[in-house]
């Protein structure tokens, strides 16, 4: 296992672990003693990684997983206690605001990452963990994973998570889940549209992940990045100008190296060269 050039000198907090196999980077949430609750250090470390790989076209996918049988149980209560003390000392709510907004910036960064993001969801997938699942491109869940938005039951709001949950499952379902604080398993998460596939054991999970990775490698790296960016734009831009720009991108792709290699591979009945990486 060798980290790519963009990551070799990166010093990250031990709340996460990095594991790379070729073009596939696995980012492990590594606080199993707290069910991988999201600490300030973890948020910062995740941002560090996604900042460093943003322009690294050799990394084609990021797999998000949690150590110890859990994905992420939400925000770290210990950090909340520390923020309470800091807010009292400065006589301002700013420490709360800064921390919460930093978490939202991290979620947005993962959402907009040019790489394909795959979430492997086991055990607790709560609060911030639920939000992270909602910005994945591919979500695979164990049937017995526990999903939920428990914030209102704790007297707080799913403040930074809410927009991404609504985009994932729609306003009607998001209102019900957030206001009732419901807990539900992987099969219900699939029905809601949070996850794409549900598996029943570790063997099935690894097999499905392997298949997903192979499919990711079949997509041309640059075409994949540009397609993801285009899909994001469909939510915010006027249709006519978006389609005009998409036509230009299509023309550039057809005449570019990937388009030529893809066409030649099809004619020669072979896999394109990018599938080997």
Explain how this protein is built.
The structure is a single chain. The chain has helices spanning 40-53, 77-90, 94-112, 128-134, 162-169, 171-180, 186-192, 202-218, 221-233, 239-255, 257-267, and strands spanning 16-21, 24-29, 61-66, 116-121, 124-126, 138-142, 146-148, 183-184, 197-199. 34% of the residues are buried. It is built from eleven helices and nine strands. The strands form two sheets. It has a six-stranded mixed β-sheet, with helices on both faces. It has a three-stranded mixed β-sheet with strand order 5-7-8. The protein is α/β, with parallel strands linked by helices and 277 residues long. It has two domains: 16-217, 2-enoyl-CoA Hydratase, Chain A, domain 1, CATH 3.90.226; 220-276, Lyase 2-enoyl-coa Hydratase, Chain  A, domain 2 (Orthogonal Bundle), CATH 1.10.12. Belongs to the enoyl-CoA hydratase/isomerase family. It comes from Acinetobacter venetianus (strain ATCC 31012 / DSM 23050 / BCRC 14357 / CCUG 45561 / CIP 110063 / KCTC 2702 / LMG 19082 / RAG-1).
Per-chain topology:
Layout: E1 16-21, E2 24-29, H1 40-53, E3 61-66, H2 77-90, H3 94-112, E4 116-121, E5 124-126, H4 128-134, E6 138-142, E7 146-148, H5 162-169, H6 171-180, E8 183-184, H7 186-192, E9 197-199, H8 202-218, H9 221-233, H10 239-255, H11 257-267
């Amino acid at each position: 296992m060798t980290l790519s050039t963009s990551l070799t000198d990166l010093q990250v907090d031990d709340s996460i672990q990095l594991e790379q196999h070729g073009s596939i980077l696995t980012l492990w949430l590594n606080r199993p003693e707290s069910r991988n609750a999201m600490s300030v250090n973890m948020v910062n470390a995740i941002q560090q990684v996604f900042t460093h790989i943003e322009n690294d076209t050799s990394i084609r996918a990021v797999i998000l997983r949690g150590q110890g049988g859990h994905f992420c149980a939400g925000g770290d209560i210990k950090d909340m206690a520390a923020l309470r003390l800091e807010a009292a000392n400065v006589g301002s709510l700013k420490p709360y605001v800064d921390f919460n907004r930093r978490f939202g910036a991290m979620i947005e960064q993962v959402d907009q990452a040019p790489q394909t993001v795959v979430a492997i969801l086991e055990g607790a997938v709560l609060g911030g963990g639920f939000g992270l699942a909602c910005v994945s491109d591919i979500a695979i869940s164990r049937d017995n994973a526990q999903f939920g938005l428990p914030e209102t039951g704790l007297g707080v709001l799913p403040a930074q998570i809410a927009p991404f949950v609504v985009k994932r499952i729609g306003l009607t379902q998001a209102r019900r889940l957030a206001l009732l604080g419901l807990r539900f398993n992987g099969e219900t998460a699939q029905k809601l549209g949070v996850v794409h596939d549900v598996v029943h054991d570790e063997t099935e999970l690894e097999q499905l992940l392997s298949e997903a990775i192979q499919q990711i490698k079949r997509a041309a790296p640059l075409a994949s990045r540009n397609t993801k960016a285009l899909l994001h734009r469909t939510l915010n831009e006027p249709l006519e100008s978006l389609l005009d720009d998409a036509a230009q991108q299509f023309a550039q792709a057809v005449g570019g190296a990937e388009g030529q290699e893809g066409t030649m591979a099809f004619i020669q009945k072979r896999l394109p060269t990018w599938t080997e990486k």
